Amino acid sequence: MGGAIESLTFFPGPVLAIETSCDETSAAIVIERKVLSSIVSSQVDMHTKWGGIVPEAAARAHVEAVLPAIETALEQASLSMSDLKGIAVCNRPGLVGALSVGVTASKALAYSRKLPFVGVHHLEGHILSVLTSPDAIPFPHVCLTVSGGHTEIVRVHEPLKYEIVGQTLDDAAGEAFDKGARLLGLGYPGGRAIQEQALSGDPKRYKLPKGLSGNTLDFSFSGLKTAILRLVEKEGNNLCVQDAAASIQEAITSVLAERALNAADKLDAHALTLVGGVAANQVLRKRLKEGCEKAGLRFLTPDPAYCTDNAAMIGVVGSLRLGLGHRDGFDMDVFPNAQLP
Ligand code: KG4
Ligand code: ZN
Fold first, then answer.
1. Residue 173: its pLDDT value, please?
2. Where does residue 80 rank: exposed (0-12), middle (13-18), buried (19+ CB within 10 A)?
3. What is the pLDDT of residues 95-118, one digit of tens each?
4. Residues 174/146, Cβ–Cβ less than 8 Å
5. Distance from the alpha carbon of residue 266 to the mean position of ligand 1, in angstroms
6. Which helix (H) or strand (E) holds 265?
7. Considering the entire predicted model, what is its pTM?
8. Which of 75, 84, 236, 337 has its CA 20 to 30 A from that of 35?
9. Cα(227) to centroid of ligand 1, in Å?
10. What is the DSSP letter of 102?
């Protein structure tokens, strides 16, 4: 397949996609790579109260939100249930109760409308979320996937053929942002809050560790968390939150950018893609864009709306897989810890 996405056969016709793996209830309608509608109903307010995600509360919120999200997605696409030709659902990995809600809803709809359906890996959704933009996507490319649950450098040989070449040994990059934000008293989720505080901060003010050194494509963010805790304790009321936020953002984004650009160089990639919730970070986007320009590499990243969790990315992968004849049966399970296919 090597060459181009244009040579791929997508499923012809509208596909309903459902994503409920964590704390966003999302439904989307796609036709091939085109997103007709994408609804994301966030549980952030509820989880903010608890300072993080409570799995059982997340599952119950999905129960309430999933059918209204599907209805709104159909309305915004100006379609009805009878126009649908297939269903894609995220069935792995994620919180088991949360995943079960989306999977059960999709099975019921597939059964009642006699539609083909396919389970999609959440990480594959992120990796191929660049398909939601109309740009040509060259293969092979290197993908930096950075979210609340993932930090991976993936060599994408061709769509559906992935090789993880680097990953975090402990916390994910999004987790590092979230933990840093919590220690600074900025609440949950922390990535966006750190980015906002950092706008008026000095990134060189506090020296923070960047994890593993040397010629590696792996990451470690647990030392950063400990260093932030020590900094907060040491500085007390003298801590400048803006400077601390800027320094945390600097530590995380510089190591991510450096490793991803190294990987693209080592692996003769035709492009570098940036996906996942942390890809919404403006400093990281800028660093990689400039690094790619210097290296003569194409840089691709989805619209920020398709970086954080969304069903549209599940839909484009589903459309690709359904187009290749992939189908799941009504006994399809959920897999909380599944590896990338
Ligand atoms: O992909 P995502 O929505 O969910 C997972 O699959 O985990 O990613 C959520 C993560 C959170 O850790 C959040 O703090 C981070 O993405 N995030 C950001 C930004 N927006 C969201 N991190 C840094 N800068 C941002 N602007
Ligand atoms: Zn995600």
1. 96
2. exposed
3. 999 999 999 999 999 999 999 999
4. yes
5. 27
6. helix 241-266
7. 0.93
8. 337
9. 21
10. H
